[in-house]
Amino acid sequence: MKLRAAIVLSFAAIMGSGLIAAGAATAGPPAPSDVQTSENGCPIVPRGSDGKPLPPPKGPDGRPLPPPSDNNGNPCPPPS
């Protein structure tokens, strides 16, 4: 019985330390964003070398992503 209790306690200690290490690895500062935003939260549309706005990014399925929204949840105006 003592051997079984020792095995259970050592297993619990190993699993607990693994959970603590996993939590520390996942908790960190958010990744820095490379998207610049205006004062209302809408992203600033990147422009090409000719000064025209670049096309919207495509999603994983190949279709364009939905338009972004501002800080209040309203759709951002289209790039001009």
H-E order: H
- What is the tally of helical segments? 1
- Helical content, roughly? 25-40%
How widely separated are the two ends? 76 Å
Largest sheet: none
* Poorly predicted ranges: none
Question: What does it look like?
Answer:
With about 80 residues, the protein is mostly helical. Helices cover about 30% and strands about 0% of the residues. The protein has one helix spanning about 1-25.
Question: Characteristics of this structure?
Answer:
80 residues, mainly alpha, 31% helix
Question: Would you spell out the secondary-structure blueprint of this structure?
Answer:
Layout: H1 2-26
Q: How would you summarize this macromolecular structure in one to three sentences?
A:
The protein has one helix and no strands. The chain has 80 residues and is mainly α.
